[in-house]
Amino acid sequence: xxxxxxxxTWAHIDAFCRADRWDEVRETDHVHWEKLLxxxxxxxxxxxxxxxxxxxxxxxxxxxxxQLKVSRDEFWRAIETREPVDRPVELDxxxxxxxxxxxxxxxxxxxxxxxxxxxxxxxxxxLLQEKWASQS
Length: 136
Prior knowledge:
- By secondary structure, the chain is α+β, with helices and mostly antiparallel strands.
- It is built from six helices and three strands.
- Strands 1-2-3 form a three-stranded antiparallel sheet.
């Protein structure tokens, strides 16, 4: 069973960076963070000052994989325990790509994004085409 996590916000990014012992390097219109890994790799991320603003699941997945280099489980575990992540970790698989027009189109039929993402991109597109065909 997949754990249920809250909708991620920029405050969660901040909490993760603090728990994972990142260095706050500057503030501009965002707070910028860096972390030096034992391998010598430097990770960089930033967060918006709008701390309660939600982050879309797609964007959040990219931040986890490309900037923080952690899985969702490790991200939430670090926040919960306030302990840094023991890297390297196995990263989550990239999210399936859904054309925006499919997600938006199905949304007009009352099918929420979470339900769309439970389908394959091909199934979602086929369902939208069926909805369109039934309107004819």
